[in-house]
Write a structure and sequence with these properties.
Blueprint: E1 13-18, E2 27-34, E3 44-51, H1 59-70, E4 89-92, E5 95-98, E6 111-114, E7 121-123, E8 126-127, H2 130-138, H3 147-151, H4 159-163, H5 182-187, H6 193-204, H7 212-219, H8 233-237, H9 244-257
Parallel strand pairs: 1-3, 2-6
Antiparallel strand pairs: 2-3, 4-5, 4-6, 7-8
Bound molecules: iron/sulfur cluster (2 copies) and FE2/S2 (inorganic) cluster.
One iron/sulfur cluster binds near residues 194, 228 and 248.
Length: about 260
Amino acid sequence: MVQFNLPKNSKILKGKYFKDKTGSSNIKLVHIYRWDPSSNENPREDTFEVDLNNCGNKVLDILNKIKNEIDSSLTFRKSCAHGVCGSCAMNVDGINTLSCMKSHKEIKGDLRIFPLPHLKVVKDLVADLSALYRQYESIEPWLKTTESKLQKKEIKQSKKNREKLDGLYECIMCACCSTSCPSYWWNGEKYLGPAVLLQAYRWISDSRDEEKKERLNKVADKLKLYRCHTIMNCTSACPKGLNPAKAIGSIKKMLATS
Ligand code: SF4
Ligand code: SF4
Ligand code: FES
């Protein structure tokens, strides 16, 4: 029988334990994935005792508190803290989400925080999104129209056409959906994945864009598009309540009827 072994350095070891120094009676145990590429050591899971009496409600508040008061080497991405920039996406308690939007009060017991799954890790909670951004660039996410039109001040859109972008323009490219998609896990180099396909559909649906046909042809590929098997993980994972699976279905339908 074939036996699979994980490479030695992929094993997550038990890490450091940071005891509370405040004497608080309201402590949350927070387990966090740590990995430092410069250390040559295996990844580990550190545990922090965090005083919730002096902490905001969101998971990001916990991370900020740990970084400011307990271990300044903890590395994670964040910017807006209001669910707008998408940079604080990570895996919290087994679910991909935005740490600035996720309330830790909803999580009973210990809290476990990992980077977005199935991506290379840059350091600690920072996942490497460069491949996803290259795929995003490949769909040319900007308005394509003739130069003469662009020189005019504005390109008007009817209310009805504008409404076609609802549920699409709100995407903040956080990658929670793509990194929860099994097809993207296994074929991420070729399959565009739900985040990029939703963005592709956003431009295909824009009445002001003049390259709808070219855009459709560009994604009409066995690997780029049809690796989606309608598993729907992407839609359940989206912290903005969007429906990338539906967008992918709409592209497939357009291709089938064009
Ligand atoms: S519906 Fe498609 S894109 Fe979404 S999780 Fe399933 S396979 Fe991935
Ligand atoms: S569709 Fe949702 S989960 Fe996917 S990238 Fe956009 S905002 Fe994030
Ligand atoms: S910090 Fe911007 S979405 Fe969370």
